[in-house]
Amino acid sequence: MTAPRIGFIGAGNMASSLIGGMLQQNFKPAQLLASDHNPEQCQRIARQFGISSSTDNAVLAADCDVLLLAVKPQVMREVCQALPAMRKPGQLVISIAAGIDCRSLSRWLGEDTPLVRCMPNTPSLYRQGVSGLYATPSVSNAQKQLTEAIFNAVGISLWLDQESQIDAVTAVSGSGPAYFFYLMEAMINAGEQLGLNRDTAERLTLFTALGAAEMAVQSEVDVAELRRRVTSPGGTTEQAIGSFTADQLPQSIARGMQAAARRAGELAEQLGDKA
Ligand SMILES: NC(=O)C1=CN([C@@H]2O[C@H](COP(=O)(O)OP(=O)(O)OC[C@H]3O[C@@H](n4cnc5c(N)ncnc54)[C@H](OP(=O)(O)O)[C@@H]3O)[C@@H](O)[C@H]2O)C=CC1
Ligand SMILES: O=C(O)[C@@H]1CCC=N1
Predict the structure, then answer these.
(1) What are the pLDDT digits (tens) for 159-197?
(2) What is the pTM of this model?
(3) Where are the beta strands (DSSP E) in the chain?
(4) CA-proximal residue: ligand 1, atom 14 (nearest)
(5) Which value does ipTM take for this structure?
(6) Pocket of ligand 2 from Cβ distances under 6 Å
(7) Which of the ligands is closest to the CA of residue 77?
């Protein structure tokens, strides 16, 4: 069997993370293509990964077994409606856009288009990504396997029973890397305020985050138990956790994630096809 050709429409942050991760696994540069309306983005992605690129999305639509839509939700309607109706037969379309639902995508692309909605995240670049997947009924088993091959190449993937769960996945893991970066920024700044130089505070924070994540993934006990094992009675951690709790940090995190999920719903409402 010849290797499936996979075309990324939109050559920005997320396309780069996915392509970079896929090339470290079994995918070859010759089977990956990217298009972007911005010629500089096309040149950048072609140079960075040694893949072909085009400023014409229609080239990918004619040539690729999988079209991976990686443009912002705000331009998704325009991009889909501008694609030629005659695309490569049996083509699978995967959208990674937050909010834009399958009903809108199938109206814009053709009702019988096999569609997968996916919510990946940027650590895919280092093959540490996690992706939530939802397939419409017209997606074949072979297309599901191909979807898994793409997203398992850059981390792990999980199929969801209901499309609505994609908004929760977006709030947890799609946006999630930014929450951890935000916490790291705060810890680096606080470390500096405690008298460390910035470089030292940064290295301590980053390796602590890496070590904690590795422990949480490898451990047989849950994260609450891991936290308890660091928290000596009457010790230093207890003071920090007590202060975070008094400041209602867990409730603040829950409110932030609810806002992210709500925004996904608003994007669907504002940008989707209501007809
Ligand atoms: N970034 C993330 O962590 C994640 C993003 N997503 C989803 O991935 C999608 C892409 O996000 P991200 O990569 O961050 O966005 P980027 O803006 O980095 O990438 C999108 C690219 O598409 C280009 N583009 C705009 N219009 C067109 C067009 N008509 N034809 C071809 N290319 C076009 C943009 O150019 P220009 O800049 O000139 O507009 C840009 O280069 C979004 O829908 C987002 O919801 C999902 C999970 C995580
Ligand atoms: O912020 C966003 O809308 C996108 C979706 C998930 C991560 N980035």
Answers:
(1) 999 999 999 999 999 999 999 999 999 999 999 999 999
(2) 0.95
(3) 6-9, 32-35, 52-54, 66-69, 92-95, 115-119, 129-135, 155-159
(4) 13
(5) 0.98
(6) 98, 170, 174-175
(7) 1
